[in-house]
Amino acid sequence: MTRTLRLLVTGGGTGGHTYPALTTLTALQRRRVPHDVLWVGTASGLEARITAEHGIPFKAITTGKLRRRPNLRELGTNLADLFRIPLGVAQAIGHAARYQPDVVLSTGGYVAVPIGVAAKLLRRPLVMHEQTTVVGLANRILARMATRIALSHESSLEYLPASVRDRAVVTGNPVRAELLHGDRAAAYDQFGLTFEVPLIYVTGGAQGSKQINTLIAEILPRLLPYAQVIHQCGSMWIDEMRAVALPPGLADRYHPVPYVGPELPDLFAAADVVIARSGAGTVSELTAIGKPSVLIPLIPSGGDEQRKNAGYLASAGAAKALLEPAPSAEQLLSELMPLLADPALRASMAEAAHKLGRPDAAEALADVLLQTARPPR
């Protein structure tokens, strides 16, 4: 573009909605596309912190959650949200009218609905991005208002209303570029790893997962003769995981850490198998870098999306999935052991994962934004 693009971004609440938008902005910066950005979100969402860290102008609005199956305990909250939603729409219209964006990017979460309504009323082009295999409730609402619909997976088309499918394009889900360029040797040096056995990287998300941590603690004595483990367990669990009784002579094969930060690309590069949840961001990262995994979905999740994400990878031969609500340690171990014993199986799963991945998703979504933006006035 030869002029400055005015881009309004909305989406957040969680990293799954926030980071794809941030990664797409980074893609625009790499292209040296002149652009101004205004991010509209909630004051309490992750997006407020992330925009502050990156110096991105931010405006907060009020919003309410749209509950698919409300219950009596949530009656008061539901009534309050009935008033919050129109207030949020009014605030969104005000911010969008003052900013006059050339294009609006929505990456989901309930905060995106008021901005989508504002874009429709102000006749500003709206690009809606869906991260999961299942189109969430907020995005099903926005799909009818969107100028273009960017999907992460081809299979998501069936969840869209038939009348809007011609506006859809599969871009993939943007992942941070640095994740694609990890240094395997750096991870081995940092953690003092051995080349004698495969490396398993375990993560339950930034806060850790009680379910995953409990399963790992139970199988460690039988697992460590055949593998070494780096376990991102969360700060609340680190003392408990450090206290797990381990077989004599094998304790140095287990490395619990509270949090993984800048070293994540190196850990991904080094890992032979990943044990993780199956949120949209995790699935996109595993497929972009091509890693075999054992997925333990968070159940319940909105629209049962994690179980469907895990099933999607498993059906393609890219992952093993424990789809029961409460999988046992024996089930986890039975999925892991064949992977540890068979490098060819790991390689075939890695190839299947890579075929599903779209490492250029941020560039593809940036293309859609530039193609959709209003021409100069």
From TrEMBL:
The keyword Oxidoreductase does not apply. It is found in: Cell membrane. SUPFAM superfamilies: UDP-Glycosyltransferase/glycogen phosphorylase (SSF53756). Its EC number is 2.4.1.227. It is an enzyme of class 2 (transferase). It catalyses: di-trans,octa-cis-undecaprenyl diphospho-N-acetyl-alpha-D-muramoyl-L-alanyl-D-glutamyl-meso-2,6-diaminopimeloyl-D-alanyl-D-alanine + UDP-N-acetyl-alpha-D-glucosamine = di-trans,octa-cis-undecaprenyl diphospho-[N-acetyl-alpha-D-glucosaminyl-(1->4)]-N-acetyl-alpha-D-muramoyl-L-alanyl-D-glutamyl-meso-2,6-diaminopimeloyl-D-alanyl-D-alanine + UDP + H(+). UDP-N-acetyl-alpha-D-glucosamine binds at residues 14-16, 176, 306. Keywords: Cell cycle, Cell division, Cell membrane, Cell shape, Cell wall biogenesis/degradation, Glycosyltransferase, Membrane, Peptidoglycan synthesis, Transferase. CDD domains: GT28_MurG (cd03785). Transmembrane segments: none annotated. It is a peripheral membrane protein. Residues 200-364 form the Glycosyl transferase family 28 C-terminal domain. Residues 8-150 form the Glycosyltransferase family 28 N-terminal domain. The keyword Thylakoid does not apply. Pathway: Cell wall biogenesis; peptidoglycan biosynthesis. GO terms for molecular function: glycosyltransferase activity. Belongs to the glycosyltransferase 28 family. MurG subfamily. Cell wall formation. Catalyzes the transfer of a GlcNAc subunit on undecaprenyl-pyrophosphoryl-MurNAc-pentapeptide (lipid intermediate I) to form undecaprenyl-pyrophosphoryl-MurNAc-(pentapeptide)GlcNAc (lipid intermediate II). This is UDP-N-acetylglucosamine--N-acetylmuramyl-(pentapeptide) pyrophosphoryl-undecaprenol N-acetylglucosamine transferase. It comes from Nonomuraea africana. The lineage of its organism: Bacteria, Bacillati, Actinomycetota, Actinomycetes, Streptosporangiales.
